[in-house]
Amino acid sequence: MGCCDSRVKDDRTQENTEERTCTDVFWLVIYILFWFLLVIIAAFSFVYGNPIRIINGYDSFGNTCGTKYNKPMGNLNFSGLDTSERPYLLFYDVKNLKEGLKICVKECPKKTLSTVSDIYDYHKFSKVDVCKYEFNYEFLKPNQNGELLAAPLGPCPSLPVYEAKPVLNRCVPKPFKEVTEAILNNFYDLLNGWDTMEQILGDLYNTWKEILGLAVFALVVSLLTITILHCLAHIISYFIMFGFAIAGIGGTAYLWYTYFDIKNSLDKTAQNTLLLESVRNETAFFWYSIISTVLTAIILTIVIFMRKQVDFLANLFKETSKCIMHLPGLFLQPLCTFVVLTVFFMFWLFVVLCLATSSYPGTSTISGVRVDDKGTTPITAPTANAKVMNLSFVEKINNFQVVEYVDATWIKGMWWVYFIGLIWTSEFIMACQQMVIAGAVAHWFYRHKYESNNHICYSMGKLLKYHLGSVALGSLIITIFKIPRLILMYLHERFSRGKENGNECASCSLKCCICCFYCLEKFIRYLNHNAYTVIAIDGSNFCYAAATAFDVLSSHALQVATINSLGDFILFLGKCFVTAVTGIVGLAIFKRNPELTFYAAPTLLVCVFAFFVAHCVLSLYEMVLDTVYLCMCQSGDAPDGIQMQNLGVTNNGNVQQEEPELMN
């Protein structure tokens, strides 16, 4: 007695390539149209976005500091300059940072400049410009009344020009007694006033090379894990269990060490010089440590209770390895998926960075020095005893234009579309991997089990020719089921802030809904996983394949629960092992980078990417295991009398009769 009725057994156990047709074409068209939208948004972000502008800052003329090629702003003077040798931003008025002029400088002032003569001497001996571009410093010589040129709007900075140090590529006055606490607070309020998302994205942009390198490192660790799965199936359960135990305990200990290290450092820092990002670092790592401790404790408890099932797990992986040995090309699938995912992640990250910095450049006219109607006496002067002077040279610098960027809110809002695109496309890429593996294993199982045909190319051809629509639909369903859960999580966060207003009941209800949607999402993901196998076997549409897979799994619920709970748990530990090792290495690297202000963000992103990479690699075994079992059910080779203590499987329906090893 088989898993399915006689019609399914007779008609669909053998692949019929002549009758195979394209499946779920409508959903493939929807996916293509969605990607057209992503490309259009990317084009706008490339035109209006500039991630370097966040990192380095920009002057009043639209030039991004430290950049060789700046785009000219129409006919605006001093725009489009080469600032590659001017990496730091200097503010002309330290008391009013947003209203004063700002320019890019070669280095921050290394000493306090109290008079224009000091500015002249500093430029003469250090060749460092602190006045406006192309300014003639001869006007600052003694007996020229150059004090009138030191103003918030230039052409020289207001006096005194304090000794400064670069903080996030901005020249910030050093804390000494001449600098008032209010001035320092203005700078740190400006830095802390940046949009939090822009600060995080700035750190991500600064560490994209490290993130890419750590993604490669995660691939290496994942391939090492899967190689051990293939070569040392009998001891792999011990290896992964103890490997995760060590990595989990070590990672949790390192997180707590990092938290206390940051806390001790902040305790020794003056209150008025604290950046909010440093405080956020402390809070983030505090919660990271708590979450890691709880998760490690839970999983270690499960490991302890499952240690008696090690022999069963070893035999289970041996059955999977038997298929892998006949299909060594399957090892290339995680690598291909990794390459595609990495390219997509880098593209997605760059577009989101550009979206976060998208703004329209505008101009406004200001006066560097204001004079009266006769053009000889200043209306405003730095001292009450301003002298009458010849201001003929001032006419050239009296009026000029500066750049002001206006936020393009409608473009920034498009990052939500890219958030959906991240989920859908990632699921689509991984679903393609599952379909290729399922098709190769099914083709090997049913028709050419003992031949050396290229099953991988056969399966990939069938995917590209017939089943991309089914993959698009399956990945879209996962994305749709994620959206309500994310919305409910957001609402729960909002209600949690109002517990004192009597929202405990609503908060509890939302938690239950979030849990239900999470379980539903996991079920749909598992059903999709098996539906791809049915599609690879008989070429049916996604909905029919999902229904068939559900019938097969429900008729053998006990056996499927045993196989998948134990096998998937071991694979999950392998993913956690890769994520923990990569996260520890990433944290150690980012912690030593002085340019980062919120290195908790890139550390978290590295862990997410590492888990994605490990998921792609280790899902290979999971897909092969489920595919072989489902193929046996489809062909009627999985008897109803499988016992929990034996789990024996016979393979009477293959082209050549061979009794496989028992899965104990």
Automatic annotation (TrEMBL):
Its main location: membrane. It is found in: Cell membrane; Membrane. The chain crosses the membrane at residues 25-48, 211-229, 235-257, 285-306, 331-356, 415-446, 466-491, 569-590, 596-621. It is a multi-pass membrane protein. GO terms for molecular function: transmembrane transporter activity. It comes from the Eukaryota. Keywords: Membrane, Transmembrane, Transmembrane helix. One of its GO terms (cellular component) is plasma membrane. Belongs to the CTL (choline transporter-like) family. Choline transporter. This is Choline transporter-like protein. It comes from Ceutorhynchus assimilis.
